[in-house]
Specification:
The chain has 3 domains: about 70 residues; about 190 residues, Acetylcholine Binding Protein, Chain: A (Distorted Sandwich), CATH 2.70.170; about 120 residues, Methane Monooxygenase Hydroxylase, Chain G, domain 1. Helix content is about 40%, strand content about 25%. Strands 1, 2, 3, 5, 6, 8 and 9 form a 7-stranded mixed β-sheet that branches. Strands 4-7-11-10 form a 4-stranded antiparallel β-sheet, with no helix packed on it. Strand 1 and strand 2 form a beta hairpin. Helix 5 packs parallel to helix 7 and helix 6 runs antiparallel to helix 7.
C-alpha cells in the first residue's frame, strides 16, 4: 500500500515520534479497513480522524457492556444471598410441617344437590362444595396495594391436601378447584365435588323410616402422617342449599351434622376422619295410597264371602281365589320398588299378614262347606257367624302388634 503524507492544517513539520505513531495507526486502519488497500488510496487526515472516532465509540461500547455484565452479576449474587432460606418451587410442593406436627386442615361441606337416593342398591349421589383451610407460612406476603387481599395459586404450584371419600363407589370428581393465599399465610381451598356413595340403610320401618346419609372423608394413606382433618370452627361445618330438590320427592331433610373422629389407616398411621351426616325422612304417602290401602281393600273384599249364602259355594270360591291371586300379582308388581334386604321390613310384614288372612278366609269357607255336606249345618253357621267378627278383629290386632314391635 502506498501511503501519501497529507498536509496537516497549521502544521509545518512533525517530529519523528509523531510520525511513527501515525504510521502505526495507519497500518492498524489498513488492517481494519482492507477496502482501502484494494483501491490503493491513501488516508486523508479527516478519514483518520473519523476512523479513530469509530474506534473510540466501539471501545466505549465494549467497556459499557463489560460494566453492565459485572453489575448484573453482582446484582444476581446479591439477590441470591438475600433469598437464602426462601422456599423453592419444589419446596412449596411439600407439606408445611412445623416441628414434626401434622398440618391441621379444617374442612366444611355445602350440599348443592342430593340425587338418586336408592334404598334398593343402598347408594346415593351428592354434589357439593368442599371447603378447606390451613396455614402455610411460606405463602405469607406483604400486600403491594390495598386491593391485594389474596393471591391465587394453581393446585400444581403449591402443596394441597387430598381428600378421600371413604364410602365412595368410585373416586370422586373434582371441578373448579381454587386456591387463595392470604397475607398471614392462611390458605383457603375450594372444590366442587361429585360422588356416588354407598350407605347403610336401616329399613326395618320401611316405608315409614328415617335414614342417615353419611359422607366420610379422610386423608389418603400417603398423607395420613402429615395431615390432620378437623371440622371448621368459623362457620357451620355442613350446610344445605336452600331450595327444593326435584330428586328428593320421596324425602325430606330434617337435620345435618358433622364430627371428627380418630382412625387408624391401613399403614397403621393414626389420622382423623370427618363425618358429615344428613338425616332424611321418607315421604310415605306413595306407599300409603298405592300399597297399603289397595292391600287393605283386597283383604276386606275377601271377607265378603261371610255374607254370601252357604249354598253359593261357586261365588265364594271365586271371590276367595281371585283375591289370593290378586294379592300375589300385586306383590310382584311393586317388588321393584321394595328394598331387597335379608330381614323383614314393615311393609313385608303387612304383605304377609294380608296373605295369611286371605288364606284363612279361603280355609274358613272350606270348613263351612264341608260342615254343610256332612249334615252339620248348625256348626257351619256358627263358624260363619264368628268369622264375620273374629277375623277382622284379629287382623286389626295383628297389625297393631306389628306396629308396636316396629315403632314402639
Amino acid at each position: 500500500m502506498i501511503w501519501r503524507r497529507s498536509a496537516r492544517p497549521n502544521s509545518k513539520s512533525d517530529d519523528a515520534g509523531a510520525t511513527r505513531t501515525r504510521n502505526r495507526v495507519r497500518s492498524f486502519l489498513d488492517t481494519l479497513f482492507p477496502l482501502t488497500t484494494h483501491f490503493q488510496r491513501p488516508f486523508t487526515y479527516c478519514e483518520e480522524k473519523a476512523a479513530l472516532s469509530r474506534l473510540l465509540a466501539i471501545a466505549i461500547c465494549l467497556l459499557g457492556a463489560i460494566v453492565f455484565a459485572a453489575n448484573a452479576r453482582a446484582a444476581g449474587v446479591a439477590a441470591q444471598q438475600n433469598a437464602i432460606g426462601a422456599p423453592s418451587d419444589d419446596q412449596l410442593l411439600l407439606a408445611p410441617v412445623v416441628d414434626g406436627e401434622k398440618v391441621p386442615v379444617q374442612v366444611a361441606l355445602h350440599i348443592l344437590n342430593l340425587a338418586d337416593i336408592d334404598e334398593v342398591s343402598q347408594r346415593f349421589r351428592v354434589v357439593a362444595y368442599l371447603f378447606a383451610k390451613w396455614k402455610d407460612p411460606r405463602l405469607a406476603f406483604a400486600p403491594k396495594a390495598g386491593w391485594e387481599k389474596f393471591r391465587v395459586y394453581r393446585p400444581d404450584d403449591v402443596w394441597t391436601p387430598h381428600f378421600d371419600f371413604v364410602n365412595g363407589v368410585a373416586p370422586h370428581s373434582a371441578f373448579d378447584v381454587t386456591l387463595r393465599a392470604f397475607p398471614d399465610g392462611t390458605v383457603r381451598y375450594y372444590e366442587r365435588s361429585s360422588a356416588e356413595l354407598s350407605n347403610t340403610f336401616h329399613l326395618h320401618r320401611f316405608p315409614f323410616d328415617q335414614e342417615r346419609l353419611r359422607i366420610l372423608i379422610h386423608p389418603p394413606i400417603s398423607e395420613a402422617a402429615v395431615v390432620n382433618l378437623l371440622q371448621t370452627t368459623e362457620e357451620p361445618p355442613i350446610t344445605i342449599e336452600e331450595r327444593i330438590y326435584s330428586s328428593l320427592a320421596q324425602w325430606k331433610i330434617v337435620n345435618v351434622q358433622a364430627g371428627a373422629s380418630p382412625i387408624v389407616a391401613i399403614n397403621k398411621e393414626k389420622t382423623t376422619q370427618i363425618e358429615f351426616d344428613i338425616d332424611v325422612d321418607r315421604e310415605s304417602n306413595f306407599y300409603i295410597w298405592k300399597v297399603f290401602i289397595p292391600l287393605l281393600l283386597m283383604v276386606v273384599l275377601s271377607w265378603t264371602v261371610f255374607w254370601i249364602d252357604n249354598s253359593e259355594l261357586n261365588s265364594q270360591v271365586t271371590i276367595s281365589v281371585t283375591t289370593i291371586l290378586t294379592v300375589i300379582a300385586f306383590a310382584f308388581a311393586i317388588s321393584t320398588n321394595l328394598p331387597k334386604v335379608s330381614y323383614l321390613t314393615f311393609i313385608d310384614v303387612f304383605f304377609l299378614t294380608c296373605y295369611v288372612f286371605v288364606f284363612v278366609t279361603a280355609v274358613e269357607l272350606t270348613f263351612v262347606h264341608l260342615a254343610g255336606r256332612s249334615k252339620h249345618d248348625t256348626m257351619g253357621r256358627t263358624i260363619r257367624r264368628y268369622s264375620r267378627i273374629v277375623l277382622p278383629i284379629m287382623f286389626v290386632v295383628t297389625n297393631l302388634v306389628m306396629i308396636a314391635l316396629y315403632f314402639g
